[in-house]
Design goal:
single chain, mainly alpha, Four Helix Bundle (Hemerythrin (Met), subunit A), 8 helices, about 5% strand
């Protein structure tokens, strides 16, 4: 049985994403936390490319979906969890250990649920915060913590933020899915402006954007709940 060699291309991006995730853990264990965080960010870029490459080359497959989830577990579950523990969690004993570990557990649940309902899930929204978004929030937060000494004496607040993000992954809150966005001139201009800002202040910009994304889902969810209560009356 011959296999289309094009199938290798998207899976290669996926494999590289997992490779960077493992590399991130190794660098973090050697004390290079910021560089390890950057590896997770690059891993997210590769993870975003594999699906697009698969659609462009028409090489989407069940194997690719499962392989992507397993690699996501490494790059966006295990790596951020270990980075979180080595950077903050180890200062809080068992509490830090539990919060860091729960991030992996919640991430695994998020991926498993996504794989089950992927055929029925609307293409415009994700149910629960996507695990790459949660991972990027954690690693950019860790970089900013070290750069600006944010919450220097109250790092447990950052640990709490990580726990909340983990809960959001397994919640029923819907988050926009930009994979099927229809591009036009206005959206292209906005994208160029955003990329320019990210180029100038990469970590700060990414952290702000991902935080706004997380908050948007929460506000939208609350708005829908309040609307239902009002209309019922």
């Amino acid at each position: 049985m011959k296999i289309n060699p094009l199938y290798i291309i998207p899976n290669l991006f996926t494999a590289m994403s997992a490779f960077l995730g493992i590399s991130s853990i190794i660098y973090a264990s050697n004390g290079k936390i910021e560089f390890a965080c950057w590896l997770v960010i690059v891993s997210m870029i590769l993870d975003g490319l594999d699906g697009r490459v698969a659609r462009i080359t028409n090489t989407s497959s069940k194997f690719g979906v499962e392989f992507d989830s397993l690699c996501d577990m490494v790059a966006f579950g295990c790596a951020p969890s270990i980075l979180l523990y080595l950077s903050i969690g180890n200062q809080y004993g068992r509490l830090g250990l539990v919060v860091s570990s729960l991030f992996v557990v919640f991430g695994a649940i998020r991926l498993a649920r996504f794989n089950i309902i992927i055929t029925n899930e609307t293409s415009n929204y994700f149910i629960g915060l996507p695990i790459p978004s949660a991972a990027i929030f954690v690693v950019t937060m860790l970089i900013l913590k070290d750069r600006y000494n944010i919450f220097l004496e109250y790092e447990f607040i950052l640990l709490a933020f990580s726990f909340i993000v983990g809960i959001l992954m397994v919640s029923n809150i819907r988050y926009p899915n930009f994979k099927h966005i229809k591009w036009n001139l206005s959206k292209m201009i906005i994208l160029i402006i955003l990329l320019s800002v990210i180029f100038i202040h990469p970590i700060e910009s990414i952290f702000i954007l991902i935080t706004l994304y997380i908050i948007f889902g929460i506000i939208r969810y609350i708005y829908i709940l309040i609307s239902k209560v009002i209309f019922r009356k």
